Task: inverse folding
């Protein structure tokens, strides 16, 4: 079993269901994305550059769907929040599956992918 699969299996509900659903949306929306297990969490890369990662922050009760270049997306997608005062990363916090607006999330994924393809680096700050 791959480490990323093991990560998902070891999550408690409702986090496991939320993460598996978000994972399926990411993989179905962006077929070019590569799923990797880095820093003990799942990352999604395009052309070896990270675009998104999934995490459960210690002490928080939600799944953190974090966009690496989120600072460039937050005006167009106000659902992205700056949690933990991160310089570049912005994220969607999901407490339940119902918190995810799939149509808007798919648009966000496409926009993030386009943005990443135009930039040389994923981390620029």
Result:
């Amino acid at each position: 079993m791959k480490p990323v699969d093991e990560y998902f299996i070891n999550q408690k509900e409702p986090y496991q269901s939320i993460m598996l659903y978000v994972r399926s949306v990411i993989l179905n929306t962006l077929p070019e994305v590569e799923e990797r297990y880095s820093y003990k969490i799942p990352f999604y890369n395009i052309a070896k550059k990270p675009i998104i990662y999934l995490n459960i922050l210690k002490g928080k009760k939600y799944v953190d769907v974090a966009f690496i270049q989120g600072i460039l997306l937050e005006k167009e997608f106000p659902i992205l929040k700056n949690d933990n005062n991160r310089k570049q990363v912005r994220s969607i916090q999901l407490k339940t599956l119902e918190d995810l607006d799939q149509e808007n999330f798919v648009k966000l994924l496409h926009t993030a992918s386009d943005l990443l393809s135009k930039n040389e680096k994923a981390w620029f700050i």
